[in-house]
Design a protein that fits this description.
The protein has 259 residues and is mainly β. It is 6% helix and 42% strand. A six-stranded mixed sheet has the order 2-10-9-4-5-6, with no helix packed on it. Strands 13, 14, 17, 18, 19 and 20 form a six-stranded antiparallel sheet that branches. The chain has a four-stranded antiparallel sheet with strand order 1-3-8-7, with no helix packed on it. It starts with 12 loop residues before the first helix and ends in a 13-residue tail after the last strand. The structure holds 2-acetamido-2-deoxy-beta-D-glucopyranose (NAG) (4 copies). The site of one 2-acetamido-2-deoxy-beta-D-glucopyranose has 6 residues, from strand 3.
Length: 259
């Protein structure tokens, strides 16, 4: 009886040996930190800016680079290929005319749109036909529209300010005299940070307020609004007047007295 190892498929063994050698060549790496990687600069880009996809740790003897949109080396989504020896670049079907490849393999994408958001893959080929693939990703965000600030003092001792913005997915911060507002226990922010209530208002709250809308790539501040807090004298008869006006001096709300 034959041992199980001496099976009729003995002829396959050299082939398996080649496959094993190929996979060792492709995947065995004596320095795991030297792995080919893509670093997007920046990861969060504003529409209309440029993104550089840096290729790190490419083999010293790379003879060519292929760039693809998506996370696989799919020829249908090839952006550009580059031959190091001839410095010849060949655009692919995903080439938009805004891409530029450098001799070190890094890819510059100019004037990005939100459609450029997503994965990119680079394939390097070495002289001994070793192929390596790395993927990277970046996001493109629209420019944030300027928010507007509305303020009311429905009660003489309190002020409510609201930051109006139609942009979805933005975060709001409050600015006081050009610095990030330090919240005190008299201040209350709505959960979405769009409304700031100061109750009661004190003299130290007087100053210029702005709200800032931001996404991961850009931010814009509203116009400045000046909050004036007027305290009457003598203190035996306390009156707290607060009114809100723009820097230009337009009254936003009438002065009110607390008797
Ligand atoms: C490239 O390899 C070096 C080691 O040679 C390692 O320190 C570095 O982190 C790698 N860089 C990247 C961006 O992967
Ligand atoms: C590659 O070349 C570009 C353009 O010259 C440069 O900005 C970049 O720093 C270089 N280095 C790497 C690691 O891509
Ligand atoms: C950038 O792209 C936009 C369309 O997405 C185009 O209107 C604009 O002219 C481009 N700007 C430059 C500097 O190429
Ligand atoms: C973005 O992609 C959509 C769908 O693929 C397309 O309709 C639109 O024209 C593209 N916009 C730009 C600016 O390329």
């Amino acid at each position: 009886m034959q041992p199980p190892s001496a099976c009729p498929c003995r002829g396959c063994i050299p082939w398996q040996g080649i496959l094993l050698a190929v996979s060792l060549l492709t995947f065995w790496n004596p320095h795991p930190t030297d792995q080919l990687t893509i670093e997007p600069v920046p990861f969060d880009a504003a529409e209309g800016t440029d993104v550089l996809l840096l290729v790190h740790n490419a083999s010293q003897n790379a003879i060519g680079y292929n760039w693809f949109k998506g996370n696989t080396a799919d020829n249908r989504h090839q952006i550009i290929s580059y031959m190091v020896s001839t410095q010849l670049t060949t655009p692919g079907s995903a080439f938009s005319g805004r891409e530029k490849i450098y001799s070190n393999g890094s890819l510059l994408i100019q004037n990005v749109t939100q459609n450029d958001t997503g994965f990119y893959a680079v394939q390097t080929i070495t002289a001994n036909l070793r192929v390596e693939l790395a993927t990277g990703e970046f996001r493109v965000h629209g420019l944030v529209a300027q928010p507007s600030l509305r303020a009311t003092n429905t009660e003489p001792h309190s002020v409510a300010m609201t930051c109006l913005s139609g942009d979805p997915g933005i975060s709001i911060t409050w600015i006081f005299n050009s610095q990030t507002l330090q919240l005190t226990d008299r201040m209350q922010l709505s959960p979405d940070h769009r409304t700031l209530i100061i109750d009661p208002v004190r003299q130290e709250d007087a100053g210029e307020y702005q709200c800032e809308a931001s996404n991961p790539a850009s931010s814009t501040r509203s116009d400045r609004y000046r909050l004036a807090v007027i305290c009457e004298w003598p203190p035996s008869h306390p009156v707290l007047l607060s009114y809100i006006s723009t820097v230009k001096g337009h009254h936003m709300a009438p002065a009110m007295s607390l008797g």
